């Protein structure tokens, strides 16, 4: 039986490690039912199931797919959409109801986890915008060509390490603040600089670097001026500051003034080439990937996904 074109397919991704998943889904369900939304929903068991469930929704003809989840779930969703034929992808519109540990992409559009009813009202207005994605292309240690799309950013170096530690801590503790504090403490025992060779526009950088952020979106505060619809990537290259400057930089990051730090060097480009960064961890939208081997490239894909935005 064909799916009505107005019926939503909702992929609910509960937070792992916390006990309020049912309560949050009850709030979402109430908001949908009160507004008479026609929908079917499926629930992910873990991060590995998002791709499978997305494919099921697409193959069953849903034209509006809403991710009730965080940045990682959105990342899995857009990567699944990018794996299908363009003619199929162009018929699907993606939306989000924030429900994750990190909701930076949703917050960029002013979607808030605490305001489910407002979010559903905005989604119902069906204001569609084509958005950009970033893409990292690399070869892994098995000599396999790999690529991964991102909505927020790629981190190379220290912040990739911290983001991974923070994600692991929060999945256990459930507290954003506590997990952030623990990540900062553990940071003191991490390597603080990496030898890198980068090419950004006409600049070639060959020196020790603490961290690099390449953002198509807000980049968790590291690329605060990046927007996912101008066909550009924002890049922040951070040289290794002194300890006192390091903690000052973290405060500027938290307070939204990261680019004001003297050790941060911003760029705007369509492509970044990483010629050498052999010991630096790499994360895509906050999730570690296998460390690339050799040269890898990060590019922007312009206006490639249909996304529901608010007024």
Description:
- It contains 9 helices and 16 strands.
- Helices cover 30% and strands 33% of the residues.
- The protein has a 6-stranded antiparallel sheet with strand order 6-5-16-13-8-9.
- The two termini are 34 Å apart.
- The protein is α+β, with helices and mostly antiparallel strands and 311 residues long.
- It has helices spanning 21-34, 49-59, 71-81, 86-89, 104-108, 116-124, 158-173, 176-187, 243-254; strands at 8-12, 39-43, 64-69, 93-98, 127-139, 145-150, 153-157, 194-200, 203-209, 211-215, 233-238, 264-269, 271-276, 282-284, 287-288, 296-309.
- The model has no long low-confidence stretch (mean pLDDT 86).
- The largest beta-sheet arranges its strands as 6-5-16-13-8-9
Q: Return the average pLDDT rounded to an integer.
A: 86
Beta-strand share of residues: 25-35%
Query: Unreliable stretches, pLDDT < 50, 5 or more residues?
Result: none
Oligomer: single chain
Rounded Rg: 19 Å
Largest sheet: 6 strands, antiparallel
Using the alpha-carbon principal axes, give the shape: elongated
- Write down the secondary-structure element order: EHEHEHHEHHEEEHHEEEEHEEEEE
How are the SSEs ordered, and which strands pair?
Blueprint: E1 8-12, H1 21-34, E2 39-43, H2 49-59, E3 64-69, H3 71-81, H4 86-89, E4 93-98, H5 104-108, H6 116-124, E5 127-139, E6 145-150, E7 153-157, H7 158-173, H8 176-187, E8 194-200, E9 203-209, E10 211-215, E11 233-238, H9 243-254, E12 264-269, E13 271-276, E14 282-284, E15 287-288, E16 296-309
Parallel strand pairs: 1-2, 1-3, 3-4
Antiparallel strand pairs: 5-6, 5-16, 7-10, 7-14, 8-9, 8-13, 10-11, 11-12, 13-16, 14-15
Helix pairs in contact: 2-3, 7-8
């Amino acid at each position: 039986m064909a799916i009505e074109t107005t019926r939503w397919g909702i992929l609910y991704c509960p937070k792992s490690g916390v006990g309020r998943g049912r309560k949050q889904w009850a709030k979402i369900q109430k908001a949908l039912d009160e507004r008479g939304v026609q929908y079917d929903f499926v629930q992910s068991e873990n991060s590995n199931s998002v791709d499978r469930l997305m494919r099921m929704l697409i193959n069953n003809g849903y034209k509006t797919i809403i991710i009730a989840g965080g940045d990682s779930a959105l990342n899995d969703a857009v990567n699944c959409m990018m794996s299908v034929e363009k003619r199929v992808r162009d018929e699907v519109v993606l939306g989000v109801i924030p429900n994750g540990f990190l909701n930076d992409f949703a917050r960029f559009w002013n979607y808030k986890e605490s305001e489910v009813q407002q979010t559903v009202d905005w989604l119902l207005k069906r204001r569609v915008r084509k958005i950009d994605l970033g893409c990292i292309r690399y070869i892994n240690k098995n000599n396999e060509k790999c690529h991964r799309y991102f909505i927020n950013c790629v981190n190379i170096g220290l912040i990739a390490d911290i983001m991974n530690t923070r994600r692991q801590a929060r999945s256990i503790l459930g507290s954003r603040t506590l997990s952030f504090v623990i990540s900062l403490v553990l940071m003191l025992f991490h390597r603080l600089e990496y030898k890198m060779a980068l090419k950004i526009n006409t600049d070639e950088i060959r020196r020790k670097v603490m961290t690099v952020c390449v953002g198509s979106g807000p980049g968790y505060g590291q690329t605060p001026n990046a927007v996912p619809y101008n066909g550009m990537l924002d890049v922040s290259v951070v040289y290794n500051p002194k300890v006192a400057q390091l903690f000052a930089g973290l405060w500027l990051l938290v307070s939204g003034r990261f680019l004001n730090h003297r050790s941060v060097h911003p760029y705007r480009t369509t492509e970044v080439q990483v010629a050498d960064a052999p010991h630096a961890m790499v994360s895509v939208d906050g999730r570690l990937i296998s460390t690339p081997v050799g040269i890898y490239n990060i590019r922007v894909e312009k206006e490639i996904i249909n996304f529901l935005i608010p007024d």
